[in-house]
Amino acid sequence: MNLEFGRLALVFLFAIIPVVGIALGINSPGLRARIPLFVAFFAGTIPIISLYVPKKFLSGPTGMSPRLDQWLIIVYAFAILLGVVNVLQNSTRKIVRRESGWPFSIVLLAGLFVTGGAGVYGAISRKGITLLPDGTATPFKWIQDQFFQPLQSTIFALLAFFMASAAFRAFRARNTEATILLLAGGLVMAGRVPLLEFLAAPFPPLQPAAAGASQALGKLTEWIMDTPNGAAQSGIIIGAALGAASMAIRVILGIERGYLGLGRGE
Amino acid sequence: MAGMLDKLLSLDRRWIFLLVLLCVGTPIVMPIGLPVTTTGSTRAAFDYIESLKPGNYVWISFDYGPSSAPENDPMAEAFLRQCFAKKIRVIVCAFYPLGGLGLATNSLAKVTAEYPNLRYGEDYVNLGYKDGAAAVMRRLGEDIAEAFPADVRGTPLAQLPIMKGLRSIRQVQLVCSVATGVIGEYWITQVHSQIGTPIIIGPTAVAAPKYYAYLNAGQLVGMLGGMKGAAEYEKLLAARYPDMAHFYQSTRGFTATKGMDGQTVIHAVIILFILVGNVAYIMSRRAAQKKGA
Known about the structure:
By secondary structure, chain A is mainly α. Chain A has helices at residues 5-25, 29-52, 56-59, 64-96, 102-124, 139-169, 176-191, 195-200, 207-252. Chain A is extended, with a radius of gyration of 28 Å.
């Protein structure tokens, strides 16, 4: 086994120290609270330092930062497991207590077990979760094609009806800002589709003029999307990035501790 | 007059729903064939893929689910058709957890059936779904096989001829992310900004406005904004490739060009609703002011 410094450092920082911390923290709540802060500090600083310090043990192909990325993928997979446990707990409680809408929880759990079971079967049998070599669907793919996709499409399609209803009832020019929004929205909606050609379709003599006007409207729409929208989006993205960076610094330095979920006094 | 306004403002929403159903459904059953004009961002995306050489690599990421499939499927399928027509090697993956892999499988099966000479593992490969999009993308810059050790069929990457000599996404000429949410942004921030691979994005119309910032900053090669972008791409493909012109005219399946008919009619109806709603609102406000005076 190749004992690289980066690998040893990772094992020390993220395995030995947390385990020792947990063991010592059994009788010491104060110490127990400090160990996650220590882990978060190194998990946050190693990727940042690796960007500026071109050392093999930090940013090389098997260095500390790429390995942390690899671990992150595994942690994401555990997050799904956590989600499954959460759904199980909540749905079971609802069914046991006969809370409002409890029959839906039975359907949810049935869907979870049947679909999850089909996925696990695909993994164990090595048939996968997509198509078999002969082009037929695996059980998981069949459930996805016949249930999941139509259901999700249906739910999303309902939006068209609610949006039309909301446009009629709620989209009002109540003040200057709302009027500007209304005009910009109306122009973009009209400019993104061949609306004028559609309206001129029953009147052939008007069609060339409609095509020209539609092109001009399209250019105006592109300008709105490109210039005022692009500028505003840039501002939002830069602002959000600065906010995320400052929050990251607060977490790394242990100022922000909400994610620990500690009780009072810990 | 006031009575009519009140009636209009308190119109039962089921009438609106019925009108929407008719306006969306009729053009799908009886297509109108409205013209589609192309925009610069779509032409830039098309021209970039046209400039690639046979044997180059294009990575197509299915970062959307069934909810936005009518917008995103035509984009992904247009990218696949153009790449296969140009003999570009295609690597497919999915980062969207809610059905991304299923849609990738369906689109690949549909388009590869149109090109019987294509061979799986040599001309194209499906790497499947992987959770943790941003972290996986960072790994792709170092070693693709560490992020995706095997393809969707469980074949190790080392055994696939298409992956021979391809170690990092740095060697891929282009990434096309067909995206519904934040995953498209990850491709820009994690792959383009840090590794330098060019990106084309195909977002839904709702998500498209935010990508104009990246387009203006030169961080995107091109963009297909919503169903209109997909319809523009189909038009460009049809103009460049006669086979595809015939396909898009004769297919009985759903295309973005057909979808644009329905979208145009429903946009007209929504604009009409907004106008009528506002006229009624202004008139009722004036009537109330007169009463008060």
